Structures
1.
Amino acid sequence: MFLEPHFSGQRSGWLEVICGSMFSGKTEELIRRLKRAKIAGQHVEVFKPKIDTRYGESEVVSHDKNSLLATPISDTSRLLNVPDEITVIGLDEAQFFEPDVVKHVQILAQRGKRVIIAGLDMDFRGEPFGPICQLLAVAEYITKVHAICSHCGNLATHSYRLTTSQDTVVLGEKESYEARCRKCYAMGNILELK
Ligand SMILES: Nc1ncnc2c1ncn2[C@@H]1O[C@H](COP(=O)(O)OP(=O)(O)O)[C@@H](O)[C@H]1O
Ligand SMILES: Cc1cn([C@H]2C[C@H](O)[C@@H](COP(=O)(O)O)O2)c(=O)[nH]c1=O
Ligand SMILES: [Zn+2]
């Protein structure tokens, strides 16, 4: 369980990254932390990449259908325009943001804001996805969450693509992906080669 660091003295900002496979609870955890910030009386704003139209245009939605209003953006320089009174910023589907998101979230932290970033750690190939490596490097707090392997019930670490597309970006959920442990993911890829 992630508990918010205690503020003391001059407010300083920081970066939190929540990552894992699909269905691992990234969006649920992001929503949980943002709701707690609101309960604490902090002003929160949520953003997501404009490309993410899976569930809706202007909200982040978990696979459990919990949701928060979110502003879709195509350029993360937009984050630098948030009003001063916004002290907590949430980003979902961070894998789809452009590389400059790393620079922009660090500027926000420098301005004393808490930035909570959720996104896939790996793509369907098992490769780091988008800016995640750099975001993990510069974050103060990192949380890796796990799904349950659809094949064996162990902890899942990988997102296995069920369709034949080789495009890195293919929006979808259970019709196109399933969570798998490292072993079942590797087995699936071996069987595909036969
Ligand atoms: N294989 C799975 N393992 C764990 N949770 C799953 C799985 N398949 C569906 N779920 C559901 O997905 C929810 C997590 O949704 P969400 O937070 O949107 O995940 P993520 O953002 O990581 O894709 C879980 O609470 C659970 O109800
Ligand atoms: C593995 C993988 C996923 N995607 C897409 C599929 C979904 O639309 C999102 C991830 O959603 P979630 O909140 O983590 O469930 O990303 C993709 O485009 N490419 C991939 O390799
Ligand atoms: Zn497995």
Note: Residues 50 and 74 are 5 Å apart (CA to CA).
2.
Amino acid sequence: MNMNERIAAWNEEAQQCACGHQHRVVDMLIHLEAGAIQRLPGYLSEQGYRQVTVVYDRHTFRAAGSDVLSSIREAGMHVDEIALPENRTGDIIADEAAIVQVMLGVRLESQAVIAVGSGTIHDLVRFVCSKMNKPFLSIPTAASVDGFTSAGAPLIVSGIKQTFQAVPPEAIFADMNILEQAPQVMTAAGFGDMLGKYTSLADWIVSRDLGGEPFCPVAYRMTEEALHTCIDHVQAIAEGRAEGVAVLMDALIVSGISMLIIDHSRPASGGEHHLSHILEMDLMQAGERPVLHGAKVGVACALITVKYKELAQTSGEQVFGIYDQLPEASQLIAWLEQVGGPVTTEQLGVTPEMVEHAFNTAHTLRPRYTGLRYINEVLNTRLG
Ligand SMILES: NC(=O)C1=CN([C@@H]2O[C@H](COP(=O)(O)OP(=O)(O)OC[C@H]3O[C@@H](n4cnc5c(N)ncnc54)[C@H](OP(=O)(O)O)[C@@H]3O)[C@@H](O)[C@H]2O)C=CC1
Ligand SMILES: O=C(CO)COP(=O)(O)O
């Protein structure tokens, strides 16, 4: 089954699911293949779009932006360009300043906005599209995150990483010729984002059983299967081969859709993501580059797994038995090392104080019950 047929099957399952969520019917065209961006002009024409805006930055212009712009122009359409500038640490942050830059560049006449980039540019464009009520189209330039097909936009607002529900892409053109060329550290980050699903899925069981939070078996299974496929293909991902990058991108797309179906990031983001978000905020406050999202998530997943396995052994609460089923932290680290990602906090450039701060505060970042929340609010309080 191709991706669009799989989406139709998930939609059907989700509509029959009695979990209590309002399941969103996913209506997204997905092209994941070599040469996918060549389909863009035809798609724009079919949709009747004559004026569009393309958002890119220095790296993503080279990776795909330049070709995208020429192909749209050659098809006789009008295209506005937004070249996002880097900040003083050489990065682009999805914050207030960048949101305004994108908004200022999108003319009211523009009929669609095309994100050419990885996680940050996608979140900026999806947020602006939701505010300006315009279709959002996706051209990923690296298999680095699962945020291409979701609706949530994690943004830094007043220095705090907060997620705002925005819009998913109307169509995604994931071109294997581009994704294969992305730096291996970005592919490794995408793998790290997927590895984090071990602890996010386990935390979702805890959220359900201890926090009484909503749980959807369809979204859970989609994410779990995507994770297992990545693990089955870890060597191909490590070699950056087309087969491996395609499996990884497929998994990232599916993980994004699992968030989209239930309009929440629960399947994809647990304690490991909350730790990563705090580390990101602290790095930015220290004037350092925040490091790739999936790189932080992968390392945080291994760190939190150690705590979660201790919790399963010592708490006496049956609900934490799910953490016993996690792979050993040493195995998680071995996989990260195999794909070429960082494996220690030193390699991420975070200090021991930042790690301690993250472990002590990350549970307050999102209103979710996780093992990390239990450790901080129950265990540590008991121990005084
Ligand atoms: N919406 C959602 O559900 C999710 C959102 N996210 C969010 O995504 C963001 C992180 O995204 P991530 O992809 O890790 O990183 P970024 O989008 O921040 O990009 C990191 C770097 O990759 C560069 N780059 C991108 N593509 C290429 C390429 N083909 N060749 C060379 N360089 C390239 C970028 O260049 P440049 O600096 O020029 O941009 C940038 O330097 C975080 O804010 C995170 O919270 C993560 C997961 C899910
Ligand atoms: O990064 C995410 C999934 O990979 C989503 O993060 P949030 O839960 O913070 O929105």
Note: The chain has two domains: 20-179, 184-383.
